[in-house]
Amino acid sequence: MKFGRKTRPVQSEGTAEAPETAGTAAPAPPPGPGPHDIADVDVENDGIERIDLGGLLVRPGAGLELRLQVDESSGAVQSVLVVSSEGAVELRAFAAPRSGDLWEDVRRQIAAETSRKGGTATEREGRHGPELQCVVSVRTPDGKTATQPSRVVGINGPRWFLRATYLGKPAVEPEAAGPWEDTVADVVVRRGEGAMAPGDPLPITLPPEARRVS
Fold it and tell me: Is residue 167 part of a domain?
């Protein structure tokens, strides 16, 4: 499966976790199921190694690789992809109002757009609540027509909204999507305090300590 014409794998300089010693308490886990707001997580001291991408802090699951989806014309990072040979999850984060259910509105928009393209969007209950299973027809590079399944999940946070789109195996076999869903649950969102209109994307940046692989 092709995940985008312009993606950049990202690797961070990993550090081994120090073994626990007598009298040293293990780091406390983040409160409740994620994704989490950065105000609720002690990212400096919780012992979890994450890749800091500005608006998102991501910890890819075992066997998964993090890539950035980049706009070819502007060079701006559009989204984060966590991939393997079997599938991927695309992560995008947006500003949201202080109250209300932005995901309910976005679900309706996605369903309407999918229907306009001649596809189907079926709502189901998943690990993170209501989600959409979508199927649309796409044109392959060799000119043939194929179907592209996806599974779209939305999570409302404090003044932010995270959208996760599963592709490949985690889209069509939700029961086998554990590594990708765990990655989504481990995401920490940094909204920032600046004024942003609802729906504005949170900035995604390449951390200076990360190494680009071309």
Answer: yes
Coil vs helix vs strand at 25:
coil
Residue 16 CA to residue 27 CA, distance in Å, equals: 15
CA pair distance 81, 90, nearest whole angstrom: 5
Average pLDDT for 36-45: 93
The rounded percent of the chain whose pLDDT value lies above 90 is 63
How is the beta sheet containing 51-52 ordered, strand by strand?
Answer: 36-37, 188-189, 56-58, 51-52
Domain of residue 95: give its range.
51-206
The answer to whether 87 and 167 are in contact (CB under 8 A) is yes
Q: Residue 129 corresponds to which tokens in the numbers above?
A: 């609540």
Residue 126 maps to a domain: yes
Q: Which residues contact residue 170 at a Cβ distance below 8 angstroms, ignoring those fewer than 6 apart?
A: 86, 87, 88, 89, 151, 176, 177, 180, 181
pLDDT tens figures, 51-108: 999 999 999 988 999 999 888 888 788 899 999 999 999 999 999 998 889 999 999 9
Closest CA to 31 of 188, 196, 191, 176: 188
Q: What is the pTM of this model?
A: 0.81
Beta strands 160-168 and 51-52, pairing class = unpaired
Q: Which two tokens stand for residue 80?
A: 């984060």
Number of domains in the chain: 1
